[in-house]
Structure formats: structure tokens, C-alpha cells
Design brief:
- The protein is an alpha/beta fold.
- It has a single domain (4-181), classed as Rossmann fold, CATH 3.40.50.850.
- It contains five helices and eight strands; from the N terminus they run E-H-E-E-H-E-H-E-E-E-H-E-H.
- The strands form two sheets. A six-stranded parallel beta sheet has the order 3-2-1-4-5-8.
- Helix 3 (116-129) runs parallel beside helix 4.
- The longest helix has 17 residues, at 26-42.
- It is globular.
- The termini are close together.
């Protein structure tokens, strides 16, 4: 079996109801991410937590030192689990994420978190480009509706478009139930 790591990206307070940038389906995504974490812990697999914090205190969300930038209690790391602080969309850029994975001999990464169309997309593509086998657990991810050129794109469509795109050439797509049922 390949050496596998679970990467949980940006499951932070500002993305939840009452936060500064709530995402559709974030509660359910966090519940599924918590299930993935529990299983990975029971198997002593590497779990890497990624937390985004913008450098500007006037950021629209994830402001430095704010409660909104904190990892949600459902998925908080425990002692010994690496926590990567990122300031950019791609969790690999200007962080030690790749070093953490490589030092542990990781060959396969499982990605969960938020936002589907930004940080999940960037991390999954980068991981594939670095040569890791990538699985995205799609129902452990969440998105927010977008607007472009006067066209409103609902969150569900944003999420589906990005998952379909990643699933085409970058990652295997699995639901939490499918992933866990497959013995992962």
C-alpha cells in the first residue's frame, strides 16, 4: 500500500455560518472531514492541517489573529499532527507542505476542505504535478456561489464544475462513504 497522507485545508471559522465568508455546505463538509481524520488517526496515517491567514489585517476573511482564521473545533489538529500556515491559495506555495510529505515518504494524498474552486483545486493540481497520487473527497469540500459577467453561479454548480474538472485529469473523486468503504 502506498504511503498516504490526509491533507485538510482551510476548515476555518470564517467559512461557517456566522463567519465573515460562509460557504454552502460547510457544516456537512466539516463533518465528513472529521470522519476522514478519525479514520486516518485510527490507522496512524499522516494528517496535515492547513490554515490560511491573509497578511493584511483588513482582509475580508481569515484576518491575522482573528477568531475567523482559527481551525474549526470539528477538525482541529492534535499533538504531533503538522499544521501548515499558508498565505497564498496553493498550500504548497511558500510552505513546507511538500517537505513534510516527502520526509514521511508519502506517495498518495487525500484532499478535503475548502474552497473547492480555490484552495482545494490549487492543492490537488499541485500535488498531481509533484507526482503524488491524488484523491479528492468531494463531499468533504465546500464552495461559495460566484458571479461572472453578470451571471450568478450557485455554489453547487461551482463545486460540481471544479470537482468534474479535477476528476477529469488530476484526481480520483470519492465521497466520504466510498472512500471509507474501500478500506481507506
Amino acid at each position: 500500500m502506498a504511503h498516504r497522507a490526509l491533507i485538510v485545508i482551510d476548515v476555518q471559522m470564517d467559512y461557517f455560518p456566522g463567519g465573515r465568508w460562509p460557504l454552502d455546505g460547510m457544516e456537512a463538509a466539516a463533518d465528513n472531514a472529521a470522519r476522514l481524520i478519525a479514520t486516518a488517526r485510527s490507522r496512524s496515517e499522516l494528517i496535515v492541517h492547513v490554515r490560511h491567514e491573509f497578511p493584511d489585517p483588513d482582509a475580508p476573511f481569515f484576518a491575522p489573529g482573528s477568531q475567523g482564521a482559527e481551525i474549526h473545533p470539528k477538525v482541529r489538529p492534535i499533538e504531533g499532527e503538522p499544521l501548515v500556515l499558508k498565505r497564498r491559495i496553493n498550500a504548497f506555495r511558500d510552505t513546507d507542505l511538500k517537505g513534510i510529505l516527502d520526509r514521511a515518504g508519502i506517495e498518495e494524498v487525500v484532499v478535503a476542505g475548502a474552497m473547492s474552486n480555490m484552495c482545494i483545486d490549487a492543492a490537488a493540481r499541485a500535488a498531481a504535478d509533484f507526482g503524488y497520487s491524488v484523491t479528492v473527497v468531494h463531499d468533504a469540500c465546500a464552495a461559495r456561489g460566484l458571479e461572472f459577467g453578470g451571471v450568478e453561479v450557485p455554489a453547487g454548480q461551482v463545486h460540481a464544475a471544479y470537482m468534474a474538472s479535477l476528476g477529469f485529469a488530476y484526481a480520483r473523486m470519492r465521497s466520504t462513504d466510498e472512500f471509507l468503504a474501500a478500506g481507506h
